[in-house]
């Protein structure tokens, strides 16, 4: 018997995560006869993200920047000034940015003087899935943790290729490598220059607005892939300029909300 773990709506679609006895399955349907997405996964939140993004890409009203802006205003009617936007998206990120700047100044990290444990404590947010947080903890508490932090600082300061290469190698040796792990700290240190990459959300958004990142993305940790992300970020920032984004925290939050929020998320107080 299937057990429903999570359920929500996105436009005409009902989204549901069920436990099958063999693992989790994501299902989206308009009615009992018309299913638009079926996928399997191990991590509840990651599977939910994939399901929401997949269904969102099928919703014609969300296509293009005009549609994306309209969707964002459905969720946050006064845009980036909306109190709900600050409480749900911006404030906790700014708090982590401030904590990290105090616990591990970028200059100290670049010199190899930052304490990885302090970095771990200061940088904690829900931007990372639980599995990603566990992986980051394993990396930072490893003997190579200080070097990982230093490489993240190098990337934050502009040496993207070297920083990515070093972090990728360490992450592979210690646990696993992924884009969220290698872009997380640079984004928190330099939120006006860098971007946090959640591949499913970024690719879904890029496809929705017609940016080449949708098909140029690769899971290989390479500088040219990251350059594509920054191009998507810059394009998004220009296209939503009327909303007056303050930095890439606002751009990241815009992309996340448009791609990931369900009708229930939009209606929450």
Describe the structure.
- It is a single chain.
- The chain is of the alpha+beta class and 269 residues long.
- The protein folds into 2 domains: 3-58; 62-269, no CATH class.
- It is 59% helix and 12% strand.
- It is built from 14 helices and 4 strands.
- The chain has helices at residues 44-57, 64-75, 83-103, 106-110, 116-122, 130-140, 145-156, 160-174, 179-189, 199-209, 213-216, 223-239, 248-260, 263-267; strands at 3-10, 13-19, 24-31, 34-41.
- The protein has a 4-stranded antiparallel β-sheet, covered by helices on one side.
- Strand 1 (3-10) and strand 2 form a beta hairpin.
- Helix 1 packs parallel to helix 10.
- It starts with a strand and ends with a helix.
Provide tags for this entry:
single chain; alpha+beta; 2 domains; 4-stranded antiparallel beta sheet; 59% helix
Biggest sheet layout: 4 strands, antiparallel
Counting DSSP E segments of at least 2 residues, the number of strands comes to: 4
Mean pLDDT: 89
Radius of gyration: 19 Å
Distance from N terminus to C terminus (CA atoms, Å) equals 34 Å
Q: Count of DSSP helices?
A: 14
Q: What sort of overall outline do the alpha carbons produce when their principal axes are compared?
A: globular
The domain count comes to 2
* Unreliable segments of 5+ consecutive residues: none
Give the strand content.
5-15%
Structural class: alpha+beta
Q: How helical, in percent, are the residues?
A: 55-70%
In N-to-C order, the SSE pattern is: EEEEHHHHHHHHHHHHHH
Question: Strands of the largest sheet, in order across it?
Answer: 1-2-3-4
């Amino acid at each position: 018997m299937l057990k429903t773990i999570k359920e929500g709506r996105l436009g005409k679609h009902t989204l549901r995560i069920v436990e099958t006895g063999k693992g989790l399955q994501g299902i989206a349907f308009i009615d009992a006869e018309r299913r638009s997405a079926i996928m399997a996964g191990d991590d509840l939140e990651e599977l939910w993200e994939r399901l929401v993004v997949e269904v969102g890409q099928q919703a014609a009203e969300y296509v293009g920047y005009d549609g994306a802006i309209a969707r964002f205003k459905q969720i946050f009617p006064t845009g980036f000034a909306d109190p709900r936007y600050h409480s749900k998206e911006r404030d906790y990120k700014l708090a982590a940015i401030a904590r990290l700047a105090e616990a591990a100044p970028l200059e100290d990290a670049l010199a190899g003087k930052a304490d990885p444990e302090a970095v771990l404590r200061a940088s904690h947010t829900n931007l990372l899935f639980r599995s990603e947080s566990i992986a980051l903890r394993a990396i930072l508490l490893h003997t190579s943790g200080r070097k990982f932090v230093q490489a993240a600082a190098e990337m934050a300061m502009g040496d993207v290729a070297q920083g990515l290469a070093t972090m990728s190698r360490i992450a592979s040796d210690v646990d696993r490598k992924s884009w969220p792990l290698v872009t997380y700290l640079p984004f928190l240190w330099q939120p006006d220059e860098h971007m946090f990459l959640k591949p499913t959300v970024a690719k879904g958004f890029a496809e929705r607005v017609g940016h080449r990142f949708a098909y140029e993305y690769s899971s290989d940790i390479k500088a040219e892939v990251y350059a594509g992300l920054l191009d998507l970020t810059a394009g998004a920032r220009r296209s939503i300029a009327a909303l007056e984004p303050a930095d890439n925290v606002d751009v990241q939050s815009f992309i996340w909300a448009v791609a990931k929020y369900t009708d229930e998320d939009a209606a929450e107080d």
